[in-house]
Design goal:
- The chain is built from 19 helices and 25 strands.
- The protein is α/β, with parallel strands linked by helices.
- It has three domains: 227 residues, ANL, N-terminal domain (Rossmann fold, 3-Layer(aba) Sandwich); 155 residues, Rossmann fold; 122 residues, GMP Synthetase, Chain A, domain 3.
- Strands 11-12-13-14-15 form a five-stranded mixed sheet. It has a four-stranded mixed sheet with strand order 2-1-10-9, sandwiched between helices.
- Helix 1 crosses helix 2.
């Protein structure tokens, strides 16, 4: 059943729209966009940080088609790849869709990546064009100097090269020249953030993405009048899904936040209906409000102070969320739910309900799941990636001949079908006595012990006992008045003792070191989504770790 204002399809297939969860999964991302443009009209699609209407849906459509026509005129062909080194800004959305309308593949690049990392990714991607912004020109130039393949054409937002595309007049009539992709074509390549080595390019098809977003909208009630703030890197699948692809079928409005320093003020001003973030933001919002809540402050006021007064859909993912954080926000009136997914499955395997903490819920209907003999969670379905780009060896290592994707996570599935994630398979600690344990569980206990411990990395594989590297929250340290190393060490020791009281003897932390600097996605210790880079940490702090183990027998930890 066609809507009266549905956009025509140059490939001849009708843009049937029967609600986001019924027809959209059979479209490509490009078709979903054009259909939403036809329905959305003058409704705001994207707002900038100043909350001006950067783009209506109609303006979004015109801009994307103009840029697409300009790229094709400059030599972009069907199947080519285009790198996007951009912050969270309206031009990202325009550029990404423009590339898709050319039958090509957009690839997001992490702005925080080092030049060497960018060069490695660009060599693998083989980009014909790169679209960037002035802030990243120097880094990109350094990366291009390290590349093995030929140099791509560079387009810089805000400069003549971009304005010529944006004002391109050859886009009229726009639809006739569009080289529409097929569902089996690659819609994007997500480069994994490298917690286990060099990044691998996850090729996701239009079918992968459209299946995922339609199943999400079946599970979660999303509406056109909802707003969401885009602040995580667009190179991460969770941000792409939540603030780029899903609005193509819901028509929701996205507010771009290109600077994390502006996030909290923007949350307070926008009061969005949808908020997705890794646990770290939720932990910080909890730390900012929990003391006042415990003193009896009004929950409505506290929610408004952190930008959550209107939140209807609150989600966390990309890393395990401590149950105490989930419980706190639910008590505060924010319906925080945990999600589980990975780039290789187009971002979403399951979404938890609100009836508990600690599990990641039942799988979305399109996903089959099972646990193998080693306890590893396997997933199969139409959202499983096509392949790792130019890495057949790596692809065959994670997808078997029956289509089962190895997630790398140790899990259990209870008798109601809910998934419980235990740990990363490769992260499990097996100590010198052969005891298995989860470092993530121990690290969660350390963070839960108090606000002073911002990050912790537990080491113990092949060792007689566990030690920890601890990064403290500097703002909390200052607020608590720990101005000397001895004072800080004593305070952290109290937190470690409290965490140890909740752990088995074999899991306890016998020694720790407080690292001298914060861990951020710009440093060597965290990915852009705040996951620990364990290999990098152990290499960087090798001398510190060895000192912890060479100081003589560890003190016994009475139980």
């Amino acid at each position: 059943m066609l809507t009266s204002n549905a956009a025509p399809n140059p490939n001849g297939r009708p843009f049937a729209y029967r609600g986001p969860h019924l027809a959209a999964r059979h479209l490509t991302v490009a078709e979903a966009f054009l259909s939403q443009v036809a329905r959305g009209g003058t409704y705001p699609a994207i707002l900038d940080e100043q909350l001006g209407v950067a783009l209506t849906w109609r303006g979004y459509g015109k801009a994307a088609q103009n840029v697409s026509a300009g790229l094709r005129a400059a030599g972009l062909g069907r199947g080519d790849t285009v790198g996007l080194l951009l912050s969270n800004r309206p031009e990202f959305h325009i550029a990404d869709i423009a590339v898709l309308l050319a039958g090509s593949t957009p690839i997001s690049l992490y702005p925080t990546a080092a030049a060497e990392q960018l060069a490695e990714i660009l060599d693998n991607a083989g980009c014909r064009f790169i679209i960037t912004e002035p802030a990243y020109e120097d880094k990109l130039e350094a990366a291009l100097g390290l590349m093995d393949c030929g140099a791509p054409q560079i387009v810089v937002v805000g400069r003549d090269s971009w304005m010529m595309l944006l004002t391109n007049r050859s886009a009229q009539p726009t639809l006739a020249a569009i080289s529409m992709p097929e569902q089996s074509d690659t819609a994007t390549v997500i480069y994994t953030s490298g917690t286990t080595g060099a990044p691998k390019g996850v090729e996701l098809t239009h079918r992968n993405i459209m299946t995922t977003i339609t199943e999400i909208t079946r599970r979660i009630p999303l509406r056109r009048d909802m707003r969401s703030i885009s602040f995580l890197p667009m190179a991460h699948i969770a941000e792409r899904i939540s603030t780029h692809y899903i609005p193509l079928i819901t028509g929701a409005t996205i507010v771009c936040c290109g600077d994390m320093a502006h996030l909290v003020p923007l949350l307070q001003q926008v009061q969005p209906e949808i908020l997705f973030s890794p646990p770290r933001l939720w932990e910080k919002l909890m730390a900012a409000t929990a003391p006042a809540y415990q003193r009896g402050a009004d929950p409505d006021t506290l929610r408004r102070n952190i930008g959550c007064s209107r939140v209807e859909i609150a989600l966390t993912g990309a890393a395990p969320c401590p149950p105490r954080v989930l419980d706190y926000f639910r008590t505060l009136g924010v319906p925080l739910r945990e999600t589980y997914g990975m780039s290789e499955n187009a971002g979403a395997v399951s979404i938890a309900d609100l009836d508990g903490a600690g599990c990641v819920g039942k799988p979305l209907p399109h996903n089959e799941v099972r646990v193998d003999e080693d306890g590893e969670l396997l997933v199969r379905g139409p959202s499983v990636m096509a392949r790792y780009r130019r890495r057949p060896d790596a692809t065959s290592a994670v997808i078997d001949d029956q289509g089962w994707l190895r997630t790398g996570d140790i899990a259990r599935i209870d008798n109601t079908g809910r998934i419980w994630i235990v740990d990363r398979k490769k992260d499990l600690i097996i100590n010198s006595s052969g005891k298995n344990m989860s470092p993530a569980n121990i690290e969660a206990r350390l963070r839960e012990a108090g606000p002073l411990i911002e990050h912790a990395c537990v080491i113990g594989d092949g060792r007689p006992y566990n030690v920890a590297l601890i990064a403290v929250d500097d703002s909390v340290r200052q607020a608590l008045g720990h101005d000397t190393a001895d004072s800080l060490h004593a305070a952290v020791q109290e937190h470690v003792d409290q965490a140890n009281s909740r752990l088995s003897r074999v899991e306890t932390i016998r020694r720790f070191a407080v690292v001298p600097c914060s861990w951020t996605p710009d440093s060597d210790e965290l990915t852009p989504t705040f996951k620990l880079k364990r290999r990098s940490i152990q290499k960087k702090y090798a001398d510190v770790i060895e000192a912890l183990y060479s100081a003589g027998p560890a003190d016994s930890m009475p139980r």
